[in-house]
Amino acid sequence: MTPQADPKQLIEHARRNGYAVGAYNMHNEETTEALVWAAERAQSPIFLQVGRAIIPHMGVRRAFEMTRRVAERSNAKYVIHLDHGSWDEVLEAVRLGFSSVMYDGAHLPFEENIATTRRLVEIAHAYGIPVEAELGKIPDAGESVNWEDYYTDVEEARRFVAETGIDYLAISVGIVHGVIPGIPQAPISIQRIREIKAATGIPLVLHGASGLSDREIQEARAAGIHKFNADTDLRHAFRAGLEAVFAQGDRQLEEAMAEGRSRMIEATMMKMRQYGCAGAAPLAKAA
Ligand SMILES: [Zn+2]
Question: Which segments of 104-184 are extended strands (E)?
Fold first, then answer.
């Protein structure tokens, strides 16, 4: 039985060695296996994320228990992370045994977001659990936006981190949640990443990393991003596997899901190489 790794240690190892760790959403047993098996094969640390879509589908507890069951019987170096949790969901995740949580107070006025996040940080830290938060607005794919309005403000980031005590900060620098195939994303602002990094001093996180080019990933890593959240590309890989099998006519669901799983393993391993975390699991162990 492999227990969860220490997320702070994983991120710190990534920071010291200039790579980033990937965080990917699980959606069912097969996608959880795809992520865990990719981590084993690539010898990569991994954040297994319970994301927004699965909570109305099966609830935080079932999603956590499924993820833990699959991960525990592997040799992967993993942590189970709650993505975009509400107040209640973060508390539930802390009780259940997640080793990392993200609280999303973006709907609150800034001062209230600081106060609420700080209270959750106090609770989570009492259990040894690090907290991620997001600042700046991240639009959904397809929205047309004036990017300057969406970027994380450097001064707000400095205050937010100093006053809440969060461990990692997710920022908005030109990325979107979700990706629409065929529509290129706006280029991300590497300069803004550097400025936020200098102002906050903590590891930064980029959500919506599916739409980024190789070069942007490299530059973002060098500028201070040490966790990338990517879901869309992996979901598309799984779906392409299902579609390829069903394109041949009526087939067993198991055959389709096995093909989806194997394509998702390949897509996940590709991300791990891009983020520089492939091969890092044994090294992070020694840290
Ligand atoms: Zn996000």
Answer: 131-135, 168-171
Structural domains of the chain in order of their starting residue, each with its CATH number: 7-286 (3.20.20.70)
Q: Count the alpha carbons within 13 Å of 266 in the hemisphere toward its beta carbon.
A: 10
- The active-site residue out of 6, 83, 104, 233 is 83
Q: Tens digit of pLDDT for each residue in 77-95?
A: 999 999 999 999 999 999 9
User: Ligand 1 center to residue 249 CA distance, Å?
Assistant: 38
Inter-CA distances, 89 with 95, 130, 135, 136, Å: 10, 15, 19, 21
Give the up-direction half-sphere exposure of residue 98: CA atoms within 13 A in the CB hemisphere. 31
Known catalytic residue at 83 = yes
Q: Are 145 and 77 in contact (CB under 8 A)?
A: no
pTM, to two decimals: 0.93
252-271, pLDDT tens digit by residue? 999 999 999 999 999 999 99
Q: How far apart are CA 100 and CA 224, in angstroms?
A: 20
